[in-house]
Amino acid sequence: MLLYFLLPILCNALLLAACKLPKLAPAGSEFSKTAVRMGILTAGEILVLLLLHALIRGFQITGSHLFPPLPLAITLLLLGAGTAFSGKQNTAVLRKYLQKAACIAGCVFLLEVLVFHITSFTTQKTKEELPLSTAEISDEEAASFNDKGEITITGNCTLTFSDLDWDELHCVRLHADGKDKMYQVSLSMKDNNLTQRFEKTAQTQATGSYDTLQFAMQPYEKIHVLQLQFENIDAPITLHSGTAYAAIPFAFSTGRFLLVLLIALGLTACKQFSVWEIHYQAKNWKHNLAVLMTLFGCLACISAFIVPDQKPTDIHSVDISNVYGKTLEAWTDGHSYMNFDVTPELAELENPYDNSNRDGVSYNWDYAYYNEHYYCYFGCAPVVLIYLPFYAITGKVPTLNFAYCITVAAIIIAIFGLIMTLVRRYDKQPPLLLLLFGLVSAVAGCGAFVGLNYNDRYYLCLLMGMFGLLLALWTGFAAVSVKKSWKRFALLAVSGIGVVITAASRPNLLVYVLLLVPIFLHLLFRKDLRLQNRLISAGCFLLPTLVGAAAIMWYNQIRFDSPLQFGAIYQMTVDNTAANRISLARFPAAFAAYFLHPMELMDDFPFLKDNAVLVPNRMMYLFVERSFGALAMPSVLLGVLSIPLLWKKWKQRDDCRIRRALVLITVIGAVLLAWVDYCMAGITIRYLLDIMVVLSVMSTMLLLQVPAVLKPYSANAAQISQKVIALAMTGTVLAYFCILITSGDGVALYKAHPTIWNVLKDTLVFWR
């Protein structure tokens, strides 16, 4: 209670003292008026806090602390700032914003207390302890009582609590802990509505370090029996206690308060300071600083995926799942094949690539097997660019997680570089805020964080291929715009290296190198450049490309006796990949799966996830995992829908031919690659990222140009389009975030933050 008196007085006294500063001091007798306003505000704040305290204590189930000091202090300071500086005349825009911020802070605080806890209001404050000692355990080998009367759960089981006869109880809280392994718990009940049959009322997932599980229910009259079902138990869990309440207990969420407050303040600032009307200028240091800060923000997100307690290993202690470390081990031993023994049973098989022939035969999964040796058929670029330098410097082999973090950081930098290069060339002054949204949306949309999250052997070569492609496009487009010849030569050489990295990582992505053809043709036929400069430019790009291509073909030759064979047809996987063929009859299904397949709506947090793909008429074996279509991402869908509008505008200008060519190549290349991936590999998010990497960049560039095209027709339409586009870009980021946190507990995000799902659910889901 004392806090409600001291904190308002302290906060408002500090703000009143700040009014004495020369730059903030009000003119004339305004200070005395400010002091009076601050005094009235302080009294009002104390009164409101006391009323809220009485309301919550009277009609909600509460703990010892109602309002955490941090959100309370923030609210009081914003309320005080809006009042203290409301009389200053020379900062009208800022003054109005502070006044609005004060109203927002008060409203958000009341929203958290009264609206987000609407289910906590009750006239009954009864509660009942769950009698653990009476629990009927379905499987005594899976659960047992310990010395303290608690229940230790080691496997899937059901706990039934009978003869309860509880009245008007609507919430059950369990306190359980254990190791950081994800498990599921569901609550079922028998009440006066269904006395002889259990009805499941709620379910949740948790990890051992998140010790409070909450279930909401709405029984009819009395609860007779409760049943807890524990599933997916991979590590021991100890159930300490359980309590049933008449309503969900009040618990002020600092995270939710700050999230809502920041969103509201940010949106208000955009309107108050006309941020939507600011257009990016390449020579404005403030604008470039905003872009740089956005880049650092995206790079900082990588830290959330750093798996703890992983260390580099010795060259001969590399885990078999680290195919790149095993490749490095083979290279240091002077050969290209893995140091694996081939069992006689495998060597004797007539067709070892037929998975149905390998039953009972020992072999190494997902390595290429050729001439009685195992090889890595994944691209070798990660080994050359990350593993080999790391080993040369430290004498150790890096972890997969380290390699992923480095690669994703490179992808983010390359995406920013490519988009900013394209903006300076084709859309010189887009709305600044929309540009920042677009950069973040493109980073999320390319799917790099999905690969970082899975953190396994499969995504690293794909992500390295993304980096190579983005690097080639970035430096290739930049080379056309520079004036100094030496810069052009250097950029073209780097672009050629990017092409080589792509080929040595994910050859499928080479189709997008065709995007460089229109601008390179434009460069070669520029009359303002001497013929010698044009020929040197071509040589700077072709030399590293050809040298790299020769090295890749040599490496293929010494492994698989063919310069063009990367080893995919020799992989020991679910089927004989050599049997896959490109078929026109499978094109409709490929288009539907890779572009039109929706995401799955869930009835639990986060309410959206990747979707199961059903292909009943698949014609032959098809590898299928959960995925989604490219057009399920709002920014990509909106970008594709904007093409007719922009195309009409571009046809009216002769200097837009390259833009049309680039869009055509991107769309056709994405469709063709989706078809090839479907026929030759199957359906999974990993293959979808082959097309998302370019579609995310293309959609960002298209959407940045929409407001300028609409403005001559209607200024209001242009302003509305900015909001719609920003919303779509935000939707893409949120959709990918949902995918990340529904990927299971074996991914990097959960290894680094085991309780993230529960924390986010408790923060965002307030109605149950």
TrEMBL record:
<feature type="transmembrane region" description="Helical">
    <location>
        <begin position="486"/>
        <end position="503"/>
    </location>
</feature>
<feature type="transmembrane region" description="Helical">
    <location>
        <begin position="97"/>
        <end position="118"/>
    </location>
</feature>
<keyword id="KW-1133">Transmembrane helix</keyword>
<feature type="transmembrane region" description="Helical">
    <location>
        <begin position="66"/>
        <end position="85"/>
    </location>
</feature>
<feature type="transmembrane region" description="Helical">
    <location>
        <begin position="432"/>
        <end position="451"/>
    </location>
</feature>
<feature type="transmembrane region" description="Helical">
    <location>
        <begin position="684"/>
        <end position="704"/>
    </location>
</feature>
<protein>
    <submittedName>
        <fullName>Uncharacterized protein</fullName>
    </submittedName>
</protein>
<dbReference type="InterPro" id="IPR036259">
    <property type="entry name" value="MFS_trans_sf"/>
</dbReference>
<keyword id="KW-0812">Transmembrane</keyword>
<feature type="transmembrane region" description="Helical">
    <location>
        <begin position="399"/>
        <end position="420"/>
    </location>
</feature>
<feature type="transmembrane region" description="Helical">
    <location>
        <begin position="659"/>
        <end position="678"/>
    </location>
</feature>
<feature type="transmembrane region" description="Helical">
    <location>
        <begin position="724"/>
        <end position="744"/>
    </location>
</feature>
<feature type="transmembrane region" description="Helical">
    <location>
        <begin position="457"/>
        <end position="479"/>
    </location>
</feature>
<feature type="transmembrane region" description="Helical">
    <location>
        <begin position="288"/>
        <end position="307"/>
    </location>
</feature>
<feature type="transmembrane region" description="Helical">
    <location>
        <begin position="628"/>
        <end position="647"/>
    </location>
</feature>
<feature type="transmembrane region" description="Helical">
    <location>
        <begin position="374"/>
        <end position="393"/>
    </location>
</feature>
<feature type="transmembrane region" description="Helical">
    <location>
        <begin position="537"/>
        <end position="555"/>
    </location>
</feature>
<keyword id="KW-0472">Membrane</keyword>
<feature type="transmembrane region" description="Helical">
    <location>
        <begin position="35"/>
        <end position="54"/>
    </location>
</feature>
